[in-house]
């Protein structure tokens, strides 16, 4: 499987728009994704906010991995998503592993963290397969539509 990370391009906007229109991705978008301009704005919003990479499978963009929130302690926050048709194929764990290797070797980070709702078993599998060890539950961490969700925190160290 040819999974690679590359910079986002403006002409990837159609993929971003399609991704955020998936039912489970609506509330993950920082603003409503209705037009290609919205998706281009999402791509542009990464400038100076962290390091985001388009995930490609056989040269087709199928997802995103990013590290943000980098602090003076060399910690960073990891996020990821894939298009629905790329799920269950090992794309997200491979991409998260590639991102971790890059963050440790090229960016000099020491600790990478991520979190997922405890009812999101697929995201948990991605984290574990990518070498992120569970560290605990943050009770009622997220709130969507009047419902609070517990979040499981995972981390991967440069020394793991």
UniProtKB/TrEMBL annotation:
SUPFAM superfamilies, alphabetized:
Acyl-CoA N-acyltransferases (Nat)
For this entry, the protein name equals: GNAT family N-acetyltransferase
Enzyme Commission no: 2.3.-.-
**Which GO terms of the molecular function aspect are on file?**
acyltransferase activity
Ranges for domain N-acetyltransferase: 15-156
Q: Does the keyword Acyltransferase apply?
A: yes
Record InterPro entries: Acyl_CoA_acyltransferase (IPR016181), GNAT_dom (IPR000182), Ribosomal_N-acetyltransferase (IPR051908)
The protein's UniProt keywords, in alphabetical order, are: Acyltransferase, Transferase
